[in-house]
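task queued by scheduler; priority normal; single chain, no ligands, no partner chains; default sampling; output format set to structure tokens
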Amino acid sequence: MPLFRFCYFWFFSPLTIFYLVSFATEGDKKGYIAFYEGITNLDFLAAFFKSFSALGSREPFSVFVFWFFSQLRVPQFYFFALLACILFACIYNIVPKHYALFRFFLPFSFYSFVLYISAIRLEISFMFIIFSLLLLNRPYLSKLFLFLGILSHFSSILFIVPALIDRYYNSFFLFFTRLRLKFSTLLTLPFLSAFLLTIFIATSYKISGSFANAQITFSDFNLLSYCLLSFSFLRNNIIKSFFVFSPFFFAILLLDSLRVNILLFYFYFYYLFYCIPSPRVSLALYPLIIYAIFKLFHPLNLLLLHGDMFYSPV
């Protein structure tokens, strides 16, 4: 078994990832390659401004990672393959040793390969998030990596907010049950109501437009539905579970659903691994890992044939 783990971690997995990354030349990856090769002779500030149009990005630290390696003249293939291998090692090590089956299969799930191949900025962010989780016993380093993760991709804050809701849920509701309605509160209610109404109207337009243009479908909520139901089963608290997962629901409506589902997938695995001491955890995770493995087959075929996991002839 130790020999198998050694070969899996040091030989089979890196070679497989290197091989598959070599096929990724189209889709989102094409834009990342062009950006990486186009900033070789730029200073960081110029590269950062270039990312606005080239990547639609405003996250400085992921741009810095691109820029730093481009200044070292690392060929683009080795740069992207190195990121993928580092993330593989992070995912492998974030899984507790007694969950051996998940440790071997989680790095080869569909959502992992989306990070390896297409979602490069989120991949960089996710590496720093995992560094932060692995260094929880060293608070300053953990907070630093967490901060760098958010600066690499702002949507990664979704990995943090649900955990905070779960931790402070009881305190939050205790605060509101003790709150007394004062005169100053009455004065602020009209302004607060107007603010919330504005957000509701803007969100409604966004949601209706996304559904009308088929940017969001009900299948985008499949993963969230499973996580919510199984989490409720494990915690025996449907109301608390709803609040914990509500940020993912609104994020799917307002952001790219695939990106949100990647964060949801790994949040769910990590949280069940480390925060729910229940023998039923594995029962909740087995269907999810099987789903994520089988979901990879068709995108992997598209990658090998067309250089893009999400290739569409239209």
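post-processing summary
- The radius of gyration is 21 Å.
- Residues 180-184, 205-214 have pLDDT under 50 and may be disordered.
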